[in-house]
UniProtKB/TrEMBL annotation:
The organism's place on the tree of life at top rank: Bacteria
GO MF assignments: DNA binding; DNA-directed DNA polymerase activity
Record key words, sorted: DNA replication, DNA-directed DNA polymerase, Nucleotidyltransferase, Transferase
Reaction catalysed by this enzyme: DNA(n) + a 2'-deoxyribonucleoside 5'-triphosphate = DNA(n+1) + diphosphate
GO cellular component: DNA polymerase III complex
EC code: 2.7.7.7
Originating species: Propionicimonas paludicola
Protein known as: DNA-directed DNA polymerase
Top-level taxonomy: Bacteria, Bacillati, Actinomycetota, Actinomycetes, Propionibacteriales
Top EC category: transferase
PANTHER family attached to this UniProt entry: DNA POLYMERASE III SUBUNIT DELTA
Record keyword Amino-acid biosynthesis present: no
InterPro entries: DNA_pol3_clamp-load_cplx_C, DNA_polIII_delta, P-loop_NTPase
Homology family: Belongs to the DNA polymerase HolA subunit family.
Length: 334
């Protein structure tokens, strides 16, 4: 650990007590895991420690001092401070002093969910050189690697095709992907996930119909899209998940159309389009029936439906059906 002033909160050789952890970024699943690992490590170090979970917005100077100073029943404290951005400004210096020098009986984890609010305090905390875990949202092309890591974390096996199929079926939400991995591994005696198992297990399920609606809509399959849309809404899929899937598909196609003539490599074109590389074949096929002008009009139609839904439209299902039909009508338009 550094002997420089203000550096006492830095981590030394995997220790938790006498150290601070700073977790940043919007991906809540990764942030929760980082905090859980820190707490587990601290409890292994001091099993008698008290664990205190605090919401920054509810704190005052006395509550912060009490939580970080031990208790009558435990001399050691593990403190998790959530939502740093909402910490009252008058507590900034107190928290900085505590994070910079936690003392031998405190393990301190601080969580900032990303964004500009509270960034000044966040930057000052970073200068103390705590253990830092950055939990940014994953790029689409990194999601199969996430699935593979989840499988290995659960001591299972899956090949690349199965991981890609999982993302294709379930979507980009990390919690949904992690849950899907657990479900499939639990259902496999060999704890192995195959592409066929993914297709069989998730085909037509409520969790994936938002993406299925988008796929049929983009392909011009109105009957299939409307049928899956009604199924989705009947089985509890939120209307905004459908507009999100439609918008994501259209924007990816629009970026592909803009970049396909730039002579980019497939990985670079995939990054430009914001899609995994294996999606390029799908976009190439769709590009035969879509023009940039039609994509732009379709995006606008979906935005209107999204605004209607979020504005408490009396019939979200009708708004979505109209959006699906409008998007299909823009195929082939310039």
């Amino acid at each position: 650990m550094s002997d420089e002033p203000g550096m006492l909160g830095a981590v030394e050789q995997g220790r938790s007590f006498g150290c601070s952890l700073l977790v940043t970024g919007p991906e809540s699943l990764l942030a929760e895991r980082a905090v859980a690992d820190f707490v587990e490590r601290a409890l292994a170090e001091r099993p008698d420690a008290a664990v205190n979970r605090l919401e920054a917005a509810n704190l005052d100077a006395g509550a912060l001092a009490e939580a970080t100073g031990g208790s009558l029943f435990a001399s050691a404290s593990i403190v998790v401070l959530n939502d740093l951005a909402s910490l009252p400004e008058q507590l900034n210096d107190q928290l900085l002093a505590q994070a910079g020098n936690p003392g031998p009986d405190l393990a301190l984890a601080i969580v900032h969910g990303g964004g500009v609010k509270g960034k000044g305090l966040l930057d000052r905390l970073k200068k103390l050189r705590p253990e830092l875990v950055d939990c940014q949202s994953l790029k689409p092309w990194n999601l199969p690697q996430f699935v593979n890591a989840e499988v290995r974390r659960a001591k299972g096996r899956a090949d690349t095709a199965a991981c890609e199929a999982m993302v294709d079926a379930v979507g980009t939400d990390l919690r949904a992907l992690a849950a899907a991995v657990r479900q499939l591994l639990d259902d496999s005696a060999e704890r192995t996930i195959t592409e066929a198992a993914v297709r069989r297990y998730f085909g037509g399920r409520a969790e994936v119909t938002g993406f299925a609606v988008a796929d049929d809509t983009m392909a011009g399959n109105g009957e299939g899209a409307l049928g899956k849309l009604r199924w989705a809404l009947a089985t509890g899929v939120a209307p905004v998940q459908v507009t999100s899937a439609l918008s994501s598909s259209l924007r990816g196609l629009g970026k592909y159309l803009d970049g396909r003539d730039l002579r980019l490599s497939d990985p670079d074109l995939a990054k430009l389009a914001g899609v995994p590389p294996w999606k390029l074949k799908d976009l190439s096929r769709l590009s035969r029936d879509w023009k940039p002008g039609g994509v732009a009009q379709a995006i606008q139609a979906v935005a209107v439906a999204d605004a209607q839904i979020k504005g408490a439209a009396s019939d979200p299902g009708f708004a979505l059906e109209q959006a699906v039909l409008k998007v299909i009508s823009y195929r082939g338009r310039r």
